Amino acid sequence: MIEQQATVMARDGDHVWVEAHRQSTCSGCAAQSGCGTGALGRWLPGAVTRLRVADPLGVRPGEQVVIAVAEGAVLRGSVMVYLVPLLGLLGGALAGEQLSAWLSHTGDVLALMGGVSGLLLGFALARRVGADRGHRHRMQPVLVRRC
């Protein structure tokens, strides 16, 4: 489980709203000067994430708590957001190139159109899987303990 400290902001029935400051490990990385993530982190310091999580502990607003998400959920989310659209882009571009060769068409227009179509299809698939109720439930952070 990947854990993060958060502050309870409000109650909402059986759930609570928590705010957590985004953390970055960029200060400990040797490549921080040439990394895009490090540069983005310097531009957006102190970003706060507000989440609604189930409350099995009965916490009150103002309390410090620890929330957690399974490592597998982070990996699955990354695959859906990054890898699926990328594979769609590459697959569509290759299909467009093959179609172009089959039609004896010169130029890269069909490869470009296939790539854009594959990318959009990949985004649509990622969105559809992300909207699945069972998938969303497995991706939700949980309230682990009080601090």
Automatic annotation (TrEMBL):
<keyword id="KW-0812">Transmembrane</keyword>
<feature type="transmembrane region" description="Helical">
    <location>
        <begin position="109"/>
        <end position="129"/>
    </location>
</feature>
<feature type="transmembrane region" description="Helical">
    <location>
        <begin position="79"/>
        <end position="103"/>
    </location>
</feature>
<keyword id="KW-1133">Transmembrane helix</keyword>
<protein>
    <submittedName>
        <fullName>Positive regulator of sigma(E), RseC/MucC</fullName>
    </submittedName>
</protein>
<keyword id="KW-0472">Membrane</keyword>
<dbReference type="InterPro" id="IPR026268">
    <property type="entry name" value="RseC"/>
</dbReference>
<dbReference type="InterPro" id="IPR007359">
    <property type="entry name" value="SigmaE_reg_RseC_MucC"/>
</dbReference>
<dbReference type="Pfam" id="PF04246">
    <property type="entry name" value="RseC_MucC"/>
</dbReference>
